Each structure stands twice: as C-alpha cells, then as structure tokens.
Amino acid sequence: MSIKPGFSKDEEQLLKQIAASVIPPSTERSLPGADDEEVFQRLYSNTTDALNSLLNAFHELLESEGGISAASHWKAEKFNDWISNQIESWPAQSHVFFKLFFPLIIRAYYKDERVHKAYNRRPGPPFPEGYELSDEDWGLLEEVRGRPSLYKSCD
Amino acid sequence: MKDVDVLIIGGGASAAAFAWSLADTKMKILCLEQGDWVDHGNYPAMSSDFELRDDFSFDPNIRKSSADYPVNNEDSDIAAANFNGVGGGTILYAAHFPRLHPSDFRVRTLDGVAEDWPIDYETLTPFYELNDRMMGVSGLAGDPAYPPKQAPMPPIPLGKSGSALARAYNKLGWHWWPADCAINTTEYEGRDKCINIGLCGSGCAQGAKGSVDVTYWPEAIRQGVHLKTNCRVQEVTVGPDGMATGVIYFDANGNTHRQSAQMVVVACNGIGTPRLLLNSKSSLFPDGLANRSGLVGKNLMFHPYATVEARFKDALDGSRGPLKGIQSHEFYETDTARGFVRGFSIEMHRGHGPLTTAMIGLLTGRLPMGTNHHEAYSQLADRIMAVAAVCEDLPEESNFVSLDGSLTDGNGIPAPKINYKLGENSRKILGFAEARGRELFEAAGAEEIIRTQSPMPMAGWHNLGTARMGTDPEKSVVNEWGRSHDVKNLFVIDGSLFVTSGGVNPTSTIQALSLYIADSIKTRLSNASLFD
C-alpha cells in the first residue's frame, strides 16, 4: 500500500504506533486496532481537507520531541509513558496534533465494517435493507387514555 | 414565460401545498425555486459514508451548495438552519407533525403577552385534516392533549427506546402519546412504508417520509402548475400604483430575467421571506416591500431546544427507526407557579449511528483513548437516547432578521443577518425543561446524563414570525388571510406568518395556513373581491 505523500515511511510507522496506542486491537472483541491498514487508508481519504494541518501538526510534534531520528524516544517504555500523558491531557493540555488526530482517527475507525459487525451493526448503507423496530407494549398507553383533557379550551 | 396569474417564490412546504390547492382554479401558476430537485439516489442513507456527509447538513454555511445563501449568525444565540431545493425544509425535517393547541391562538387573551392570532384553531382544523391526508401522517386518535383528531395511518412503533421512555412517563404520571409524524407506517398513496433507516434528518431514501417533493409537488405539477428550478429571485417589483408586478430573478447561469404576474406569493421561510422583502426596495417602499409597519423581519422566533442525553445500561434502538416516536405535552400550557408563561413539548430522539456515538463519547469524556477504549464504547453503542424540549419563544421586536452589510450570495444579493437573543421567559422555560428531562431519565433508570444543551446552539430550523398576520396594519405585515396590508396582490404563506411560536414543530401549521390562504383566495376570486 502506498504511503500518503507528505509522510515519510518512518513518520507513517510512528503515526501507526500512536494510532495503535489510542485505539488498540482487541482479539476478545475481534476488533482491529486503529493502526490497521484499511483504517489508515480511510483516514487519509476522509481527511483530504485537514491532511495538511495534520501533517504540519505532526511535524511540529516531532520537532518538539527531538525529531523522528530520536529513536530511543519512540521506543518501549518511554513511548508508552509519553503517549499515556498525551491521552490523559486530551484535549485541554495535549499537543495540537492530538487535538486534530483523535477525532480524525475516530471518523476513520468507526466507519469500519469489522467494527460495525463487532457491535451487532449490519455493515454498509442503511438503505435499501433498513432495520426492524420492535412494536413493544402499547398497553403502556392505558394509563394516559383515561386522563382528562390537557388542552385549554378557548371557547 | 409570459405574464402568469400567480407567481410563487420558493418551492418548500407552504409553496407546494398552496400551489396544489390553487391548481384547481386553472389559473396560470408558476413557482420559482432557487434550488433544484433533490436526487433521492444521492441521499446519505444510500452510502456507507452516511455519517460523514456534509452536503445534507441543515446548516447552509456548512452545506454551501450553489442553491444556498449564507446566513450571518454572529449576533444570534441560535444559528439558522434550512434547506434550499424543491421540498425546502421538508427534505431534512424529522417529519414530526404536531398541530398547535387552541390556546396558542389566544396567548394575549390567556396570558397577557404577545398578540392573539387573527384566526383560531377551529379555522385551521379542516386544513390540518386535509394536510394530514396529503402529507401522509401516522398517529393515534384519543390524545388528551388535543381536541379530537384522527391520523390516516397507525403510529410509529414504540421500539425499545419509546417503551423505556413511556414507562418513565407513566412512573411520573406525565402525559405522553405517539407523536403525529409525516412518515408512512403503511403503504400510502403509492409511497412505501418506513423501513427504519433512521436518517430522516438527512433525507428519506425510501420516500416514506412526507417531504413535499414526493407529496404535493407531483400532484400540483400533474394539474398544470409550472415549477422552475435554479431560479433565485432578487426582488419583487412594483408598479406606480403600488401593486406588485412580478419579480427579477437570476437563472442558473447568472442571467437576469423579469417575470410578470398578477399576484405574487412569497414562501421563502421566516428568514428568506423578510430577506426578499427587505431587498425589494423602491421609491414607493424605501424600507422594503410591504414594510410600512416596520415589522418585516421583526419578532423573529425560533424554538429554543433544551436537550438532555442519557446513557442506558441495556441496548435501545440506536439509530434504527424514525428519530421521533413519542412526545409529551405535560408542560405545554401555562402554569404560573412555574415562574414563566406558556410552555413546551418533549420529543424523544431515538439514538445515534456508530460514528456519531463515538464522537459524542469522545467529546463528553465517555470514550477514553487507550486501554479501556473498547469497553467504554460497548457501554455507549445503542445505549444513548435524548429528549428535547421544544420551547415556546415569545415574539420580541429586538429579535429580527436584517440585511448584512457585506455578505452576499452567489448572485451578489445581500444575505440575511440574524439578530437574536434569548428572552427572559425563554430562558426560564429552558431551565425548567432541562430539569424535567433529567427527572425523566432518572425515572427511566438511565445510568447517567452525558450531555445537556440549553439552548441547542445549531437548532434554528423553525424560523417564525417575521411577517406576521393580524388585522391591525400597525401591528402586522399581512392580514388575517395572508395578504399584505400595503400591497394588495402580494401574499405571504410561510412560517413568517406566525403570531406566536407555540411549543411544537411548525410544519403542520405552516401548511395548514397556506391551504387556508389558498382557500381564502379562491373564495374571493369567486366573488371578485380578491384585491379590494
């Protein structure tokens, strides 16, 4: 799969690392993580207008953290602590990149058919199949039927 | 087109009903609509992107189609909403179809505020009934909140959400009833029944919702009414005798045309209508057409909404099914012990799709990122329901539509500016209504309230009162049957007519009014007193 222009290979890898931390995969629920390739491609295609802003914010973030070449920074425990801090401080105190990224990754993730299936939602557009709606118990209305008129007569 | 008998401006709810009613006179009727026919094959429900589409947003400043005009909401507590195209607001409305109450027409007499309407509930009753049949309304007879009425189709199923709320209403001893909705629950007049797509608010792909592009317009056109799309009217023109002579309009290519007419009917909604009249200045009407009272654009009323959203332990309907289901009028009439006059209705808002649920979770702090994300989402999916109080808004001259000094539409026509602040009475109603919403969800056994909005800031979809009807030319823009006091062949037939707002969705009343005005015109045509 081609990388979206603007992100280097290393940058995209780091972006996916971040994505997997904010929405991790779940084997128990048969859910992909947000680093899933399909989710990422959707992130790019959904984000046409905001992609430049996201890219700029990402570069700013990297710069503030010593750059993409600061390899040790993005590894293991240090990364986990760092991303945890960013998650906990969202949205007020987090870097502008995360303010942009969280809503965008949610928009990409919760359009995924595997996610819909995991939550008993039929994938695909609502039309033409539609859905069933139970009619439940109209006997509930009996308590209201006997009430006196509620409206003010203006005769 | 050569001179026509009747020229209608706007192709929405009121225009369609009016054109259909007048068609049997065999007059030459032309309607100019600034938008186009809406392609039902392009509705969001047809695509997997249904939760991401902006092209069917109710906010024209987001939608920005060529049919739209921008609206300046900077000085308004509530942003205006609309849809421009054949069908107007009915394309996007939830099709909640309640009538006003008899007391709504006598607010001055009963509560000492605002003005009484020049007509009453009984005057509109036959037109409400006719309109229910034409639009296709589902509901249930016997509602103690109204004088007797009968909908042509059975009510929308309760679903799990409706049942949960109904049990809570019963526990509190509050009124509730299946809402009248212009949604087919059976096959009706060649249109199929609702299949619970759940996207009423972005256009009904099934055609089960009564939008006027599938109800009135096909009938009116079959009877000879001519509807021209992509025609944006710039101004209504007048002759030296002070009578309307027609309009100047832009076609889709930006070319201007003149259209002459014996009678001009404005149906552009509570914001578009005053905008057009204020843009129609002349030496005879330097302050805008039909504005000798100075009231064109004044007394703007919205319905401020108080919404409360709650999370439930068990799954409800989510976004499956029509948005609305049951409603309560427990707090509709004035009770002075509450500290305000008039009241509100309470609507059920069924639920959200997967993506909207996640976004609400994120924005309300209920959907953490990281380890607990999926567990938290599972506690939100199909478990959110909202109630919305549709609060009565009293008319105040300080709330008004004016022309923006610099903002224009694609044809250079000045755009409207909304000048609106919540009144004291409306604020009190909102506070009381929000508290009742919380009480209701507590009785329903909700786990927690996750969000409240009072007022809902983007909910200006009911634009009312800006060319109101009345018998006194000093206090109203049109008379008791919609004719301008100042220009005797100029009519207004939309929500601008409302003298008071009531506390329910207005489309049913807007259309009943337009049918009533059409009927009044036909009566006066027959005795040659139309322009007296």
Element layout with pairings:
The complex is a heterodimer of chains A (155) and B (532).
Chain A: H1 9-22, H2 37-46, H3 51-64, H4 76-88, H5 96-109, H6 113-118, H7 142-145
Helix pairs in contact in A: 2-5, 3-5
Chain B: E1 4-9, H1 13-23, E2 29-32, H2 60-63, E3 72-76, H3 107-111, H4 121-135, H5 159-172, E4 177-178, H6 216-222, E5 226-228, E6 232-238, E7 244-250, E8 256-266, H7 269-279, E9 305-311, E10 326-328, E11 344-349, H8 354-363, H9 373-378, E12 384-391, E13 400-408, E14 414-420, H10 424-443, E15 448-453, E16 490-492, H11 507-526
Parallel strand pairs in B: 1-2, 1-8, 2-5, 3-14, 8-16
Antiparallel strand pairs in B: 4-10, 6-7, 7-8, 9-12, 9-15, 10-11, 11-12, 13-14
How would you describe the overall organization of this protein?
- The complex is a heterodimer of chains A (155) and B (532).
- Helix content of chain A is 48%, strand content 0%.
- By secondary structure, chain A is mainly alpha-helical.
- Chain A has a domain at 10-19 and 33-124.
- The radius of gyration of chain A is 23 Å and the shape is elongated.
- The mean pLDDT of chain A is 87.
- Chain B is α/β, with parallel strands linked by helices and 532 residues long.
- Chain B has a single domain (4-44, 55-526), classed as 3-Layer(bba) Sandwich (FAD/NAD(P)-binding domain), CATH 3.50.50.60.
- In chain B, strands 1, 2, 5, 6, 7, 8 and 16 form a 7-stranded mixed sheet that branches. Chain B has a 6-stranded antiparallel sheet with strand order 4-10-11-12-9-15, with helices on one face. Chain B has a 3-stranded mixed sheet with strand order 3-14-13.
- In chain B, helix 1 links the parallel strand 1 (4-9) and strand 2 (29-32).
- Chain B is globular.
- The relative contact order of chain B is 0.19.
- At the A-B interface, helix 4, helix 5, helix 6 and helix 7 of A face helix 5, strand 4, helix 8 and helix 9 of B.
